[in-house]
Amino acid sequence: MAMYDVPATLIEQIDDSKDSDISYRTLHMQAIIRDEESGDSIKVPFHSYLSKYKDFLSGIIIEYELTEESRRKYWYKPKTFSFDMYGITDLWYSILLLNNCFSISEFTPKKTIKYYDPDRLKLYINEIFVLEGVNV
């Protein structure tokens, strides 16, 4: 897979996500928090569709064998791994979950990293979006 430059700033990350129909926002159910006085509201991602459908997705999990160099490269960096595998950083959370990590500080892979097969994931996500009625 070709090497990409990981977005260095939030603005670069947002610009990269605009070109993709798969994003952290679309991969999560959202709650709306509304301020009664001002009427302002925000959407907050609260549950991952990939977590909800983990059994459905279990058949497309593969493992990436780490060299010492790649182990150092991905240590505490699931976003870098996501970008290298998928071309977007938005799947970092699923990589954490697949590797039994609850935060970036726990992402310290030893020999392999589990992730979803990039060639099949988009098809599965599209199926999930159809089931959930998500419009992208």
- The number of E-state strands comes to 4
Number of helices: 7
Distance between the termini: 26 Å
How many structural units, i.e. domains?
1
- Unreliable stretches: none
Question: What's the gyration radius in Å?
Answer: 16 Å
Tell me what portion of residues adopts beta-strand conformation: 15-25%
Helix proportion? 40-55%
Q: What summary fits the major beta sheet?
A: 2 strands, antiparallel
How would you sum up the global shape? globular
- What is the helix/strand order? HEEHHEHHHEH
Q: Which SSEs are present, and which pair or pack?
A:
Layout: H1 10-18, E1 28-34, E2 41-48, H2 49-52, H3 54-57, E3 61-65, H4 68-74, H5 78-86, H6 92-98, E4 112-116, H7 118-132
Antiparallel strand pairs: 1-2, 3-4
Helix pairs in contact: 5-6
